[in-house]
Amino acid sequence: MRTYLDCIPCFLRQSLEASRMVTSNETLHEIVLKKVMRYLQVISSFNNPPPELSKEVHAIVRNMLNCKDPYREVKKKSNEMANELYPRLEQIVEEAKDPFLMATKLAIIGNVIDFGAMNRFDVKDMINKAITENIDDNAYSRFKESIEKAQTILYLADNAGEIFFDKLLIKKFAEMGKRIVYAVKNNPIINDATIEDAKFAGIDKFAEVLPADEGQDKSAPGILLNYASSKFLNYFRNADVIIAKGQGNYESLSNSGREIFFLLVVKCPLVARDIRADIGKLILKVIE
Amino acid sequence: MRTYLDCIPCFLRQSLEASRMVTSNETLHEIVLKKVMRYLQVISSFNNPPPELSKEVHAIVRNMLNCKDPYREVKKKSNEMANELYPRLEQIVEEAKDPFLMATKLAIIGNVIDFGAMNRFDVKDMINKAITENIDDNAYSRFKESIEKAQTILYLADNAGEIFFDKLLIKKFAEMGKRIVYAVKNNPIINDATIEDAKFAGIDKFAEVLPADEGQDKSAPGILLNYASSKFLNYFRNADVIIAKGQGNYESLSNSGREIFFLLVVKCPLVARDIRADIGKLILKVIE
């Protein structure tokens, strides 16, 4: 998905949000915003997906404020909250009429824990939503069938906290005897999960945890194939099923040419338009 | 009220909105946004109120797109909608237990018709709100008392459409034998009312309609005293009561040192914080 001009105010709002997480010094916030505006001013093409620009914007924030991980505390809190919730989530899955469906829906719902796109959330409401709301029947049938046939599943993580919701589904895959590769960001970018988060969630017990990208300042809030590691690209080419979580991965990979199952909650009006669904909808969508 | 860094994304969002009203050419939208970012980048002080910066931002939009009034259609529609509603509004006032209170509340409610701050509204819901929601008792008592004692009332208009709601209150003032001066913007700025709008609403039958500012590109979405006409300033100094509608006038005049009755609906989180009220609240507030 290309970047729209509507993303510009959003990049600036996010830069301010991230800066405020690092320092309360308003002069520094102003310097960051002006530097981000200088960068956005010289963008010659908005044809790249939003995560490509977001990568640069957040690198400016980190470098100007000399902070490697502005969202560190936010991620920690998201993880702790989700960790506490996890036994209840497992119980909901096991008690469900169709545990695999419930694990899938909860993995989608987990995507709402995204401080990058919203500031308040009520996880309990969202769990009720998972129980009461439906996902696309056809897409789900195809998803389940593909998983059943698969040997290797490449699962692209999105945010900290959310990864505990992914774990529910990954455990189901493991019970089915699948080989799972769980791709996370190599370096901190917004509130996206890194190896440290995946280990904290214990996902490494069920899956090989792999950083998707390489190098400094190359992590983006949606996996960009031009910065991906060769190991990741190998799985991307050869895995039997690819699952990509969140808006960022949808933005960066919806035109990849590879069959991908996208699992996300729609939060942004531009993604809503692109994916043809309302904001707040639980999405399971396959794109070939 | 000073400008906050949070206003930057909002200025850009508004510039894009205004540009889209003029043309569907995305290259032009991009040029406008970049030019606005260039302007915001060199701002050396955010101590001025937001309408001061907004004045410059919208002048860039108008000049770059060679369009004197991007919101012309929006204002026309707001006026037409409010005009159609007007007989019903008059009836609500006359049938109310306290018609003066109802006219005051409806004048506040009218402030929700603001395409500059929100895109969707349901006027009928808002009328119910006027009937059911209360305003500050103490401020209202003081307001009524001041009006009763006053000979000359200076009333600072806000938006097109909204002016029909002002008319309800202005008619009450006229029935009380008051002299009313209704100050509007000299030139188009966002969806703010100009002389043409005030005449369309027939306010000139009850009040002297006066452009508050002078010169080219000097109109701001909140009256700035340093660009005000001498005639306006004379009324501003000598009127017995000043009423200022909307967030813009609150932002530009809340520290004027003059007693002003502010009538508005809170729409922006920064105004909400400054005025110490929740978003959506009906505000009648006196500042000395």
Task: Give a structural overview.
2 copies of one chain form a homodimer. In chain A, α11 links the parallel β4 and β5. The first copy, chain A, has 12 helices and 6 strands. A 6-stranded mixed sheet of chain A has the order 3-2-1-4-5-6, with helices on both faces. Chain A is of the alpha/beta class and 288 residues long. About 2% of the residues of chain A have low confidence. Chain A is globular. Chain A folds into 2 domains: 59 residues; 216 residues, 3-Layer(aba) Sandwich (Rossmann fold). In chain A, α1 runs antiparallel to α2 and α4 packs across α8. The interface between A and B is medium-sized, with 18 and 18 residues.
What features would you highlight for this structure?
homodimer, six-stranded mixed beta sheet, Rossmann fold, 2 domains, 288 residues, alpha/beta
**Anisotropy-based shape of chain A:** globular
Instruction: Give the neighbour order of strands across the main sheet of chain A.
Output: 3-2-1-4-5-6
The topology string of helices and strands of chain A comes to HHHHHHHEHEHEHEHEHE
Note poorly predicted spans of chain A: 115-120
- Give the oligomeric state: homodimer
Gyration radius of chain A, rounded? 18 Å
CATH architecture of the largest domain in chain A: 3-Layer(aba) Sandwich
Q: Could you report the average pLDDT of chain A, rounded to the nearest whole number?
A: 93
Query: How far apart, in Å, are the first and last alpha carbons of chain A?
Result: 14 Å
Query: Biggest protein-protein interface?
Result: A-B, 18 and 18 residues
Strand content of chain A: 5-15%
Number of domains of chain A: 2
What name does CATH use for the topology of the largest domain in chain A? Rossmann fold
CATH class annotation of the largest domain in chain A:
Alpha Beta
Percent of residues in helices of chain A comes to 40-55%
